């Protein structure tokens, strides 16, 4: 059955086109990956009444409902009003504002925009013994800054450098790190911290003749593994929270790549200040014409130096914060006339150091 459907408008409304003509998948946001269990009752109702009885846990921690007919979208949008107002309100989002401008949100029209993408987070230190920060709290603060928006960004929050939430593979990744304080009077010289740092971290700890560990601070990732394994509490996390920010990572069939460190030992105020400039930077990079293009590509388009200038505009850095002077990516190049019989040294190298890649 052929239908005259504006796919772009439906997609902006958070419905994804299906292989079945006239059927769509609704993607409902879950800021920070955690919602109240009571909302699952609504999820079951949506799946059973309008969908095909299933829902998919989206790769960006969304609740995805397949099999929704185009003619039912208006009714579904009216039903999810409570969900949107509840989940976004709990994240501090003012649904009367779109992209920072006072425009009226129609409560019965569903999501006003698909951007930014759902802000994801691991469970963080509310549960995980490795977590350095409350990831859900951070994600909700990010949600308030980037959604709703017609400019796109993928933002992941990980509670520690284990990076279970893949902050290294998105436009703007946030990783909780810890400054570690040492209390020598508690140390018994057991060497457990040295062993765990050697086995699972960056090997910045080493033993000494008197048994007290020595530390090379230059390469500490702030993971906190020494704190976890110390039996006497000689290592403790400093109460002040710090973050590492990764930019420009992405998946995709054409130019996938891991991100690079942009900020290290940044305070929460610095991270949120940078994200508050995201829409301004995106608008400039796209000549104020919103399109479906994610943040890593915008950084490539603008060049790192311009990105750094705009994203840190007005942001007061904390004394500990380090900012990358320059970031260079090297993409893989392919020859269209490459022969499988050619020797390996015929493969061309990457383009070298360029700010815009």
From TrEMBL:
GO molecular function: 4 iron, 4 sulfur cluster binding; heme binding; metal ion binding; sulfite reductase (ferredoxin) activity; sulfite reductase activity
Top-rank lineage group of the source organism: Bacteria
One Pfam family, short name: NIR_SIR_ferr
Gene3D superfamilies for this protein: 3.30.70.20, 3.90.480.20, Sulfite Reductase Hemoprotein, domain 1
Cellular component terms per the entry's GO annotation: sulfite reductase complex (NADPH)
4Fe-4S ferredoxin-type domain sequence ranges: 178-207, 211-240
Iron as UniProt keyword: yes
GO biological process, one term: sulfate assimilation
Keywords attached to this entry: 4Fe-4S, Heme, Iron, Iron-sulfur, Metal-binding, Oxidoreductase
Family to which the UniProt record says this protein belongs: Belongs to the nitrite and sulfite reductase 4Fe-4S domain family.
Name of the protein in question: Anaerobic sulfite reductase subunit C
